[in-house]
Amino acid sequence: MPVSIDFQVYVAKPVPCPYLGGREEGKLLVSLDDDDAKERYDLLIEHGFRRSHRWAYRPRCKGCLACWPVRIDVAAFRASRSQRRVLRGVRGLTLECGPPLAQDADLRVLHAYLGDRHRDGVMAAMTDDELRTMIEDSRVETELWRLRDAAGAVVAVMIVDCVAGGVSLVYSGFLPPLGELSVGTAWVLLAIEEASRRGLTHVYLGYLVEGCRKMEYKASFSALEVLDVEGWGPLPRRTAGERRLAGASQRVPEALETAAALSPPPSPKVP
Fold first, then answer.
1. Are 56 and 44 in contact, with CB atoms under 8 Å apart?
2. For residues 11-49, b (16+ Cβ closer than 10 Å) or e, as one string?
3. Do 135 and 172 touch, CB atoms closer than 8 A?
4. Per mean pLDDT, which range of 95-109, 146-160, 238-252 is the poorest?
5. First to last CA, the chain
6. What is the mean pLDDT of the chain?
7. Which pLDDT score, from 0 to 100, does residue 8 have?
8. What is the Cα–Cα distance from 44 to 57, expressed in whole angstroms?
9. Quick check: 207 and 215 in contact, CB under 8 A?
10. DSSP state, residue 75
11. What is the pTM assigned to this prediction?
């Protein structure tokens, strides 16, 4: 698909990969900090980008092709038996979709989640102000989804971007006692239901990282599409080896690569 570039594309300095030990993570970065951010992001997400705060990014790692953008075709999706069981487990919770305005209860959920699941990660040390910024700092169309229990208490939250034809799941967390309900999987299933209700076509899940166990759950969803050299298509159409042979440069539109080659490094504040 031809891409017309009228914005700056940056190349971030490599940092240790958070998913695969012993490797470095590189990124392409595009600012989403102006009035055209929504239109620009609608274009970029079709080419495998994600959002963090006011930046769109996608992997561009030297010597590594483990990350593959994936999305679910809402109309074609069929839940498996185990996924239907997960959905039944959260039917006692109420889904609430609203503006990205953080409440104290949302921050408590994220602190509890990070302390339980990512206590050794950088995010575990985030302050209330930093978590609030993560939720609210967006120039695109963003929503905050909450799951409430029967008493009305917030027990899980998810940051969701509304993009052309779909929703992109940015970040989620839940109270530790809900871990046995497979809330991560439940969030994806609830997003598929909500996207269908809104008449949307896709749910974007970010990246399937080959070799990273905590990302393997994404491959369990039917109607999963992967972005490779041929564009978006069903995940089974290529083996992992064939996808790797596609090459990183072939998976990024040439115009983006050219723009990135001419770009200075971004400021140290980017994700």
1. yes
2. bbeeeebebbeebebbbbbbbbeeeebbebbbbbbbbbb
3. no
4. 238-252
5. 27
6. 86
7. 86
8. 9
9. yes
10. T
11. 0.86
